[in-house]
Amino acid sequence: MSVLVVGSTALDSIKTPKAENPRLLGGSASHAAVAASFFAPVKLVGVVGDDFPRPYVQLYERHGIDLAGLQRVTGQTFHWAGEYEVNMNNRRTLTTELGVFADFNPVLPDAYRRTPYVLLANIAPSLQSHVLDQMQRPRFVIADTMDLWLNIALDDLLELLKRVDALVLNDSEARQLTGEDNVVVAARRIHQLGPRYVIVKKGEHGSLLSGPEGRFICPAYPLEKVVDPTGAGDSFVGGLIGCLATARGSVEKALRRGMVHGSVVASFCCEGFGLKRTTKVTRDEIEDRVARLQAMARI
Amino acid sequence: MSVLVVGSTALDSIKTPKAENPRLLGGSASHAAVAASFFAPVKLVGVVGDDFPRPYVQLYERHGIDLAGLQRVTGQTFHWAGEYEVNMNNRRTLTTELGVFADFNPVLPDAYRRTPYVLLANIAPSLQSHVLDQMQRPRFVIADTMDLWLNIALDDLLELLKRVDALVLNDSEARQLTGEDNVVVAARRIHQLGPRYVIVKKGEHGSLLSGPEGRFICPAYPLEKVVDPTGAGDSFVGGLIGCLATARGSVEKALRRGMVHGSVVASFCCEGFGLKRTTKVTRDEIEDRVARLQAMARI
After folding, report:
1. Nearest CB to A184: which of B182, B217, B224?
2. Are B12 and B128 in contact (CB under 8 A)?
3. Domains along chain B with CATH numbers
4. Calpha distance A143→A237 (Å, rounded)
5. Of A2, A72, A105, B9, which sits 20 to 30 A from B263 (CA to CA)?
6. Cβ atoms of A156 and A162 closer than 8 Å
């Protein structure tokens, strides 16, 4: 079954202690859509300006991503520039130029409205809700978010949470949202806000699923070298929902399998700047790394 | 088969934001010996002063711990006092009074010298080596350490590392020892210093085994409440070697199983001050939690 992905489509200028890469293809929807495309057909919803490079459109197309929902308007594409410190864990934003993204109003083509799996990748929660308003009884909805929305759009986010099946957020965001320092307790509290499933991302330490059937501790694939972690979280959730859309059996089992696959796609994402490594990966390489990760986590 | 445990035997005064507990039974050897005793017979090597409370001796005895190697000398027992911050991750030392520990010279009773499994719990690496000098062809030797010895006794530690099968240390210590920020690479580098097996502890994020057969990602048991993490690392390595001493099959498989059991004993340790919770646990409760952890980690 297919997956609808809405989020940001951006140009990322990424500086690390070792290299500088201007105007890479980035944004939450780009990373998530490419990650999901390894497993299921993807429909993209986003907006780009008239400066958006043609090769990036072709990149989406090579991954079979449906672009009927990608608006192309006059103006500049959303541009983000950031710099990582030596240990690659801390980053600071150098520039945020919203461009055409400032007036983004996601309008779904008719053919998109019955997509069974919906990923509301990281954008303003009011836009995420607006997309849900246009959907016809989706089977499973996952929302991702970030600290920015907890700070400036908390009420919108709380409204959204009543309408989603799963929320994905990182550990510090889970703490901020609940005021609870213990991540296990924080995940439990978030259920009370709406989502039946809560997935807490912990970067290199993996992720934790909390749901009605219990918890799942998902390991991260141990990497010897991280080139650029930008988009790793988006790749994780993209791989997760793509895998979920093709799964049979119980939701909980499918989520476990999806998280492991998402974790592996995220590991590839970290091995190159922007989408450079992810777009070169094959499904076989993903399954090979999944098998290795399973072997490493086998008790 | 039995386990020899050498390390510190101390009185710990522990302050948290919620409570204060003076002169609890503590020290690396106490935590490790009690943890190991759930799985195998334990022989303790340590030193206490004439102020060491009789109930603490009885506590060791209730766990069937052989005390022939516990020296009782005139003077004060090693006393450590520390305080935890609200999130229980940061602690600061308030007092360190070495007492009789300052002149500790571990001398092994004859009956100890052929013990097949040896845990060199956290003490000065020169003392750890001195214990090894007295052993007759042990089957498997694990050494634990701490940042203090990296700072003041690095040469002694490097000498020791050539003689042990496994080194256990936490992630920041692995980074410090190798000058390598990536923990996976750091573990690999430590093999070159001697140990065939390297176990990196990551607190609430679990631990990582690196060995000739590959890696094992060991999850931590997710706790909703941490009362006092003092001794959790010692409990982990104690449970690990106790479990290892009773295992059949390959070393690597036994280490995986041992790490999971150690992880569970450590989780109980965190649920009470000092050894209060650990000493109340039954083997059945440990196996029950191991089964839960296995279910949570199953992909």
Report:
1. B224
2. no
3. 7-297 (3.40.1190.20)
4. 9
5. B9
6. no
A208-264 per-position pLDDT tens digit? 999 999 999 999 999 999 999 999 999 999 999 999 999 999 999 999 999 999 999
What three-state secondary structure class fits A132? Answer: helix
Size of interface A-B (CB pairs under 8 A): 78
The predicted model gives B222-231 an average pLDDT of 94
Laid out side by side, the sheet with B197-201 consists of B66-72, B42-48, B3-6, B117-120, B140-144, B166-170, B197-201, B207-211, B214-218
Nearest CA in chain B to A214: B296
Cα distance between residue B113 and residue A116, in whole Å: 67
Secondary-structure percent of chain B, ordered helix, strand, coil, rounded to 5: 40, 25, 35
Q: What is the dihedral of CA B270, B276, B280, B282, to 10 degrees?
A: 30
Contacts of A208 in chain B (CB under 8 A): 222
The kind and range of the H/E element at B48 are strand B42-48
ipTM over 0.90: yes
Which distant-in-sequence residues (6+ apart) come within 8 Å of B102 by Cβ? none
**For chain A, how many residues are written?**
299
Binary contact (B208, A223; C-beta < 8 A): no
A183 vs B205: CA distance, rounded Å: 11
- pTM assigned to the model: 0.95
How far does A90 lie from chain B, in Å, by closest CA?
13
Kind and range of the H or E run holding A144: strand A140-144
